[in-house]
Structure formats: C-alpha cells, structure tokens
Amino acid sequence: MCYGWPVPGFRTLAPAKVNLVLRVGPRRSDGYHDIRSLMVPLGLADEVEVAVSTGRPGPVTCRCPGHPELDGSANLAARAAEALRRRLGRGDAVDVVVRKRIPITAGLGGGSSDAAAVLRCLARAWRVRDRRVLRAAALEAGSDVPFFLAGGPAWAAGRGERLRRARVPSRWILLAYPRSPALAIRAGDAYRWLDEARSGRSPPPRGRPRPDHPENDLMDPVLQRFPGLRTLWGWLAEAGAARPIMSGSGPTFFGAFADRAAASRAARDLAGRRVGGRGIDIVVVRTAVHTPGVSSWRSPRSASSRSTRTSSRRT
C-alpha cells in the first residue's frame, strides 16, 4: 500500500495494439517462438495511475476497478513494477490503478500495455535514465511489453524484444470483439495449436512481409477450433473492410477503412449481431503514431481504500 495522503504519483494512457503482420517461427528450446510482427498502437486505451511512496518501504498493490479478478500481484502491471524495483534495488511502496477500456483476453495487448505504462511512470518517479534496465524489466513482464515501452509502430523480432521503428500511415479501423467467454483465447493456447498444426514442421519459406498485406499465422489454427469466428471475419469483409484479419491470438478481428465515415457505417451494419450466443463490441478507432506521455498528479486515495484481493489471472 502507499503511505501518506495524498501521495504524489503519475498517470498515463496505455494504448491497445493490432498486429498488421504476425509470422511465427518454430518453438524454441526455451518454450518461446521467434516472431516477425508489425504492431501499431491504437487510440483505444486503458487509464493507468501509479502512486509511489518514495523512501517508504511497502508492497506493490494493483487494482482494476470493475474487474476484481484482475486485482493483485499476478497482473502484468504489478509484475512489471516488481521487476523494475528488483533491478533497481528499491523497496518503495507502489500503488497501481488500471481503469480498463481495452477488452480483456482479446489479442489487443491491454495487459502488456498496462505493464509498459507502469514502467514509464516509475521511470519518471525514480528518474531512471538507463533504457536497458527498463527494457529488461519489460521483457521479464511479458513478450509484448517492450513494444509498448518503445512507442509507435514497430517491427518486432525475437520474442518481441528486437524492435525497429516502422512508418505506417495512420488509418481508421474497426475492431470487432466477441464478448462470449467461450471465445476467450489464451495466447499460449493459440501458439500451441499452431505447433500442433505444423506437427514439428518449420513454416514454409515466404517473401518479405508487407504492411499492406495483413497476415497472421495464428488465425487458421484458432479458426479451426472456433469456426464461429469465420462468421465475424465474413461480416467485416461484407461491410467493406480491407483485408480483415485477427489481431494477435484473437478473438478480436479488425479491418481498415478508407475513412472514419466508412468505418462508422460498417459499425452500424454490425451492431446487434451475435457470435457464440453473445453480442459483439464494435469500436471505430484510429491507429496512433506515438505513445501517450506521463503526467504528474496527486492521489487522493488512502491506504484503507486499497483492495487486497489477488488473482492468478493475467491481463
């Protein structure tokens, strides 16, 4: 918990992402996969607040109002804070609040972005200048966290830690996220299904990936297990989306449109439709070209208002 009332802190936005390209290599000896991915941040974002009791020892706490299952030390945001504290040898109490706007377990990187947002805030609080320390803590928290820490569109390689800035024109896209819990997909499962589909074979040789040709190696094995998602893909195509595709490990699908008006018309066409017996969250959003900044604030919350609930679920 954070001591003192009020407590100086920081707040920022944690943007979602989509993968315009996701190529997956064979499973490595450490259990991870080498990837080649083009990721772009979105205007859709969680709100992250971090309060730090500098010089006063205490734990890392994490709370997600409205999502008690995400409270506690298993949240990627809390794990990122712990990783950085450990690397810097600090014991300052850290209090994290994440106000979720990004769908959970959706292939949009919400949990990883929250973790990177916490690292950016702590870097301000503790005046961390060594980017290598921040990148190491980011990779310890999760494979997608370094992308969100770097900011802006980027090609990612290795586990996701080798990043190269990319020039991707801003575009309007439509996100379609099926709310059915039966369609929630863990990234580890999607990669395992891909390995099983390949049966130990390496992926065939392919040409250079292109930003204007979306592709996702995880999509086919996911669709084989959740054929209802093909309906979602078809609806986007019928609505005029250019090359609709699944983002990350899904189940969110997205497609680009010529302008906001076209994306909004498609959103109206899809409104009220259902997949897996439940509705669909439709979001019209623009891709972003940079990561939101960090601003100072003063937390009005006291230690007594902190949730102590924990969960094994990761965002």
Radius of gyration: 20 Å
Under the CATH scheme, the architecture of the largest domain is: 2-Layer Sandwich
The CATH topology name of the largest domain reads: Ribosomal Protein S5, domain 2
* Helix/sheet category: alpha+beta
User: What quaternary form is this?
Assistant: single chain
Report the sheet with the most strands, covering strand number, pairing sense and barrel closure: 8 strands, mixed
Could you walk me through the main structural features you see in this protein, from its secondary elements to its overall organization?
The protein has 8 helices and 13 strands. It is α+β, with helices and mostly antiparallel strands and 315 residues long.
Q: How are the SSEs placed, and which strands pair?
A:
Elements: E1 7-27, E2 33-57, E3 60-63, H1 76-88, E4 92-99, H2 110-126, H3 131-141, H4 145-150, E5 154-158, E6 162-165, E7 172-178, H5 187-198, E8 215-216, H6 219-225, H7 229-238, E9 242-246, E10 253-257, H8 260-270, E11 274-275, E12 278-286, E13 295-299
Parallel strand pairs: 1-8, 3-4
Antiparallel strand pairs: 1-2, 1-13, 2-4, 2-5, 5-6, 7-10, 7-12, 9-10, 11-12
